[in-house]
Amino acid sequence: MIVMKRLKYMAAVILLAVFPACNTLDIPPVSVIQDPDIFTDDAGIAAYMASLYSRMPMEDFKFSTVEGTAGFNTWNIINSLSINTGENANRNNGGFSSPARGYWGDAYGVIRYANNLIENLPKYSGNFTKDKIARWVGEAKFIRAYTYFALVKRYGGVPLVKVVQEFNGSNAEELKVPRSSEQESYDFIAADLDSAYAGLGETSESKGRVNKYIAAAFKSRAMLFAGSIARYGTPYTANGIVVCGMPASKANDYFKASYDAAKLLENKYSLYKKKWSATDKLATADNYADLFLDATSTETIFIKGYSFPESVHSWDAVNAPAHLTSTYGDRFCPTLDYVELFDGLPKNAKGQLNTLDINGAYKVYNNVRELFDTCEPRLRGTVLLPGQKFKDGYTDLRRGTFVESIDPATPILKFFPDDSKTAYSQIAFYKTNVKESSDWKPAGQVTIVLSTGEKIYASGQDGPTSNKGSASVTGFAGRKYMDPVLPSANTTLHRSIQPWIEIRYAEILLNRAEAALELQQNGGTIAGVDLQQDAFTCINLIRERAGATMLTDRTELSASASIPKEMGTGGYVLAPNRGLQIIRIERRKELAFENKLYWDMCRWRTFDQEVNARTWRMCNPFLFAKGAKPELADYVNGKYIFDCRFDERNSSFTFPVRNYYEPIPGGEITKANLSQNPGY
Amino acid sequence: MKKIFYSVLLFLIVAYACKKDNYAAPDAALTGIIADAKGAGLQLEQGAGSARMKLDELSWSSNPIPLYLNIKQDGSFLNDKLFPGTYRVTPVEGPFYPIDSAQMLMVDIRSGNRATANFTVVPYLNVEWITDPSATGDKKITASFKFTRSAAPAGKTQPNLLDYQLFISTTQYVGNNNWDNTIVGGAVTATAVMEGQTLTITSTAAMKYATTYYVRVGVRVNDSFKKYNYTPVKTVNIAQ
Q1: Cβ–Cβ gap A234/B222 under 8 Å
Q2: Which of A563, A570, A547, A546 shows the shortest CA–CA distance to A337?
Q3: A667 shares contact with chain B (CB less than 8 Å)
Q4: pTM attached to this predicted model
Q5: What is the pLDDT of residues A308-334, one digit of tens each?
């Protein structure tokens, strides 16, 4: 009993003693840095900006359609946007690879972060000059616009969250923002970019940060999208809101906004021409390749930088020709369809590469390079052609080798018609007279011993091989962005640090030309500007730098019928008329492998027609063993023929119509009761 | 000894989590057809590519996540593994004017029963053969056809014409989901003046094999879904 009493007293005393120490626990978490700590000096803002910029949804060297965080930030870029568009093909991809990865929550994270600066930084006006606050708010608005654009190009109209939402325990319903129309979404992006342009300075605060011209450049891109969707899209209404598509009557307004924004960059940036030469095609080709790697390029507008070892990508290792890397490699194989867009190549009536004589027999070339000797320099700057010097070797592209008893002087008729998908192995002549390897690696190669006693490999060390899943699958390799000085032995994953050029002046010129022609053909005007002439000038600036054939007269940008498929060069590029077809072809040639064309083909709404059960084409070089001489480990000097055909894997690609808009993630739909896009 | 003890223990722990799955397998069935005003089934693609049946299970939620059923080439559909429930059935995404909410059907599907949901829709286009497809002397496939547009039902707008294409396949399931695009040219832009005219379309390449080819012509309009209205499937025999 006494024990019981004692316990009671003890309990009462402890309770009384402890209670006064209690306090309402309502202090900001000390492990999270708060606005008042950050918005105090330049260093705090720099840190805030670093985390804003690093979360921008940039489709850079680390963007994939299957891996990463909603596609972002992965080394594995084997599945890229470019394998869907006819730019690229590789052995891992035999069909359309949808980039719809539900990028949503992360976007609203960045947007909230930007909103916080826009809303709260001006409250700390005592700490900074007015100019600085205006500039930083401008930067945050640019990043907000950039992020909204990444959403709108995927989903159409999205919920526009313009303030920092606060949950007070009972307002969950109010925080559910419904989808705005696609038009409102684009207008919001335009307003943010205008306001960024007004607030930002002429020059960037530091490398990789935005200035007012970057905001204008991005606006020209966003408004070009908006104009195209208004003109070519089909409006779709859900819950009374036009969430997809826009009134066609708005198209000219957006194209005008795009034109005006592009025009602001005139004389601020220029096309890179350091090594360019009017007479030397090789120098012009090198100039084009250099523009992606030269840190002092006058063409670069907006970049994302990398550094070793903390922020790296794997562009070189994944994409190098098979034998010029220590790992991976060969996933960058431009298609023949893409190569055929370029000037300076022998073409047939279909506009396709012609490697035959008038009798339908293969033309014999004196070496593997000769076919492409006179090609447009931009092609050589973008693509590694057979026998091209690169890094510490040569691209060794060869499908097979004719046995020595076959004389190059005896004409060989084309194995199959162009439009056949039949396997080579079904031809008796081929089976007896062509040696081929199933593996590009020296250990797996079939070796041919020449009568001179010298040995050569049947297939090239960069493919294509008879096993269609090894090395190049198109007969080409890629050059754009590839580091030419990184030794093959050091080409490994997570070692590349060349900056990604998100916006460059060539794109702005192409935006401007397209907007100008869209306006000119549809009754739009801009005071004091001859729009067709302006488009003509822009295209010729691009072509001159590329070393391509110039347009001779502005009337070539006409509204007459476009060239149909297989009726001339670039016929497969669909456009409402010839003038726009010329501009679209130019855009493809110039901007390929930069993760831009996928979205272009979406906004033109031609993707589903162009890429419908589509099989890409390839170009197979064959060597004659007779007279061949191995000069280097990866270069055999000898006579060659080239066989153009459909991809030997017979893989076919289809862009589903519904993919013009991606599905909004199911969780978000349930959470905020959003309407879904059509077809899902 | 210990090992056996632990294995038995593990087995018991795992087995303890087991439960007899006593739910009945779904056995309700839904069947029907999407037909035009004349009662003929719409010519579609096999699967989910050209139209789908949207099912909203309304017995537990007014805004459920929909379930979709595939459709056969002749416009009919059948699924006999559905859970019993009250479904709102709508044909969607097809080459026909979207149906109004009044035309949606509420179907009560009971276990072991087969319910029917038939729809009459207005196809965007009617596509008919003029002459049966045949092989030319150089083994190309040629055919002539015509198309007419259906007037838009009240309150709907008629979409613009888009294009037409010849679909050739070596199986009967020919359509935009199953064809060889390397033996025909690009889709031909369809214009209003072509309506009712006899149009001829020919493959660009000769047929490779001595076999039966299944052929269809599709014409489509430029709506959100861009689905083809087809002719019925015909065959062409290529002799060696």
Answers
A1: yes
A2: A570
A3: no
A4: 0.91
A5: 999 999 999 999 999 999 999 999 999
